[in-house]
Amino acid sequence: MKYLLSFFFLVSLLFAAPAYPGKRTFIQPNGESITYHLQGDEHLHWMETNEGEIILYSKKNKRMESALIKNTELIPSGQAISHNKRSRKSASLQHSISQKDLEALYKYKREEHSNRMRKSQMHH
Q1: Which of 22, 29, 100, 105 has the highest count of CB atoms within 10 angstroms of its CB?
Q2: Angle subtended at Cα 118 by Cα 114 and Cα 123, rounded to the nearest 5 degrees
Q3: Domain count of the fold of the chain
Q4: Rounded distance, CA 54 to CA 37, Å?
Q5: Cα–Cα nearest to 38, from 62, 15, 22
Q6: DSSP H helical segments within the chain, as ranges?
Q7: Are strands 33-40 and 45-49 parallel, antiparallel or unpaired?
Q8: Rounded CA gap, 28 and 64, in Å?
């Protein structure tokens, strides 16, 4: 019975639950509203604006920022998100994450999780 319960627990970990599909709003420190929706699952999750920009909350700066990939992790870039066209044009676009890069990171995270599960099963 113990092994059966362990098996079902491990199988449930392999199937990731999707993120909440509804829209959310965040008020930046400057008072601007940022609308976004959650994407991903427990392997990798992020926020995406209506324009398709990948964003994350910066605990350090207490605001939404463009995301970037560093060492197989999504991290805030230090660049605040703004819907103001003038400030968006002046902001650097070097922090934009392409869908291709995001898909590759997501695939990597899922494989990493599967490999951990296989290793833990081999040790039991």
Answers
A1: 105
A2: 150
A3: 1
A4: 10
A5: 22
A6: 2-14, 85-90, 99-122
A7: antiparallel
A8: 7
Tens digit of each residue's pLDDT (9 = 90 or more) over 83-110: 775 454 444 444 578 889 988 998 998 8
Alpha-carbon distance of 75 to 87, in angstroms, equals 21
Count the alpha carbons within 13 Å of 25 in the hemisphere toward its beta carbon: 5
Angle at the Cα of 42 from the Cα atoms of 67 and 26, rounded to 5 degrees: 45
SS3 call for 48: strand
Q: Which of 79, 101, 82 is nearest to 92 (CA)?
A: 79
pTM recorded for the entire structure: 0.68
Q: 95 with 80: CB under 8 angstroms?
A: no
Look up the domain containing 52 and give its range.
2-122
Handedness of CA 61, 46, 98, 27 (dihedral sign): negative
Which two tokens mark 118? 């296989």
Q: What is the pLDDT of residues 28-72, one digit of tens each?
A: 999 999 999 998 887 788 899 988 899 999 999 999 999 999 999
